[in-house]
Amino acid sequence: MSEPRRRLTRRTLHGKEEWFKRVFRDQIAEAAGILEVVLSAIVLVALLLSIVPLVELMPGLLTDAESIEVHTFLERALDIVIGIEFIKMLAKHSPGSVLEVLLYAIARHMIVGHEDAVQNLVSVGAIALIFIIRKYFFVPSFGQKLPGGESAPDMKKAPEECQEADA
What's the pTM value of the predicted model, to 2 decimals? Predict the structure, then answer.
């Protein structure tokens, strides 16, 4: 007698399809993570290169500090700071790092931009709103754990920080 022929049922096919989807999603997520790291590296290299013109502006600030030179220097310096915070945001994956990027971007807009009083008031209100969100609505457990269950890098405290907080 021959062996009974194995039938493919809908349930079997559905299970294999779900397994294939799960594996495919995991691979896409891993590729996205790699692309994120590559993007962070590219931004980091660009930021390092953008420091050179910033340093070149410094002697001009000492000799004849015109408002245009100071303005250009502040624009470039704050752009670099925002870029650094952006890289941190990509690396940490936490809501706290997103709020920091927003704070720096709004502060840069206020400091460097020559806006009218209403725009400045809106910027101050946005910063106040970010601080209110951080103080009252920011749930500590949200963003503390990475998808693998490990603590997020910005949530890990050094032993000396824990002692200072207890005091």
Answer: 0.62
